[in-house]
UniProtKB/TrEMBL annotation, chain A:
Keywords, alphabetical: Kinase, Transferase
InterPro entries given in the database record: DhaK_L_YcgS, DhaL_dom, DhaL_dom_sf, Dihydroxyacetone_Kinase
Every DhaL domain range: 5-195
GO molecular function (one): glycerone kinase activity
A cellular-component GO term for this protein: cytosol
Organism: Streptomyces fructofermentans
Protein name: Dihydroxyacetone kinase subunit L
UniProtKB/TrEMBL annotation, chain B:
UniProt superkingdom: Bacteria
Coiled coil location: none
Protein name in the entry: PTS fructose transporter subunit IIA
Single biological process term from Gene Ontology: glycerol catabolic process
Source species: Streptomyces fructofermentans
Record bears the keyword DNA-binding: no
Length: 199, 140
């Protein structure tokens, strides 16, 4: 079973991964975006770890709901409301249970990913974070490691795609040949989940 | 001083842009074009705290609270994270005053239409319709 500490470890591991990879995320965001993805997420997840330490929510749902709210408040770019919605909806779906199982987490994450797709209007294949998240959630029933691998594969598979959402879509065919920064950071989020689980 | 015209409370208008200068200038433009006399409450929410380009949930919440007179708040945005942040705040349920709506409208033309309509005492639905109708105004 997964308790609040597990979810705190997930968020802390995500913050560390974003910190480590911030330059790469921003570099990916330079040719097809506005070169702020790494710094925006860094600011957001730094604020997430700070508020989790301060308020110390004691349920899995409480941890993710608070983290999501904090991202919406602090990021300043589109990744704030998108990741904020992902975590907040996932947290709300987990409810107030003190511990949750992996099947419950997989189901809750699917609710979160659906909310992201609704908010941004993106579908798989649009060259967005959805391309990493959907296969990861599908693979979570198997193992955390499988979810991480699926997210990484999904992020890599965005390179030949033409962007159909966000600023990159203004570039049309010129968006082809670049890996999507949002899908890349989503792969970091799933890798951090596997790390929290010790896989 | 009162914000009311003819006894009814006026709809508030919030203008969200990635740029503080754009939000403030469009607010000034829309208020100016709404003409003499009392105009509806209008507040810009531009850029991020500290002055950079981006979207601030806190500035949006503060702007909406500042223009809320109880008749609803019409929020107009430029693009990208401005749209997504307002939608995410509306989904939160308690971050914005009751009767706050995101308006599907072009930013500049919609702002002028919204402020003119709101200043004339139109209700929230009519303010939103006036702003959305600005899409239909072709220039060529």
């Amino acid at each position: 079973m997964l308790d609040a500490d597990f979810f705190r470890r997930w968020m802390t591991a995500t913050a560390a991964a974003v910190e480590r990879e911030a330059e790469r995320l921003t570099a990916l965001d330079s040719p097809i975006g506005d070169a702020d993805h790494g710094s925006n997420l860094q600011r957001g997840f730094t604020a997430v770890t700070a508020i989790l330490e301060k308020e110390a929510p004691d349920t899995p749902g409480g941890v993710l709901t608070l983290a999501g709210r904090q991202l919406i408040s602090t990021v300043g770019g589109a990744s704030g409301p998108l990741y904020g919605t992902l975590l907040r909806r996932t947290g709300k779906a987990l409810g107030e249970a003190p511990e949750v199982g992996v099947p419950e987490l997989a189901e809750a994450l699917r609710t979160g990913v659906d909310a992201v797709m609704q908010l941004g209007g993106a579908a798989p294949g649009d060259k967005t974070m959805v391309d990493a998240l959907v296969p990861a959630v599908d693979a979570l029933g198997e193992s955390f490691a499988a979810a991480r691998a699926a997210a990484e594969e999904g992020a890599g598979a965005t390179t030949p795609l033409q962007a159909r959402k966000g600023r990159a879509s203004y570039l049309g065919e010129r968006s082809i040949g670049h890996q999507d920064p949002g899908a890349t950071s989503s792969a970091l989020l799933m890798a951090a989940l596997a790390e929290a689980a010790g896989e | 001083m009162s914000d009311t015209a003819g006894g009814a409370e006026l709809v508030g208008v919030v203008l969200v842009s990635h740029s503080a200068a754009v939000a403030a200038s469009v607010a000034e433009l829309a208020t100016g074009l709404a003409g003499g006399g009392a105009t509806a409450p209008v507040a810009p929410a531009g850029g991020v705290a500290g002055g950079g380009l981006g979207t601030s949930a806190e500035l949006i919440s503060a702007a909406a609270a500042a223009v809320d007179r109880g008749a609803g708040v019409a929020v107009l945005t430029d693009l990208g994270s401005a749209v997504l942040t307002v939608k995410a705040l509306l989904a939160e349920g308690d971050e914005l005053p009751p009767g706050t709506r995101l308006v599907d409208a072009p930013f500049v033309e919609g702002a002028v239409a919204a402020v003119v309509a709101a200043s004339a005492g139109a209700d929230l639905a009519a303010v939103m319709a006036a702003a959305s109708d600005a899409y239909a105004y072709r220039k060529v």
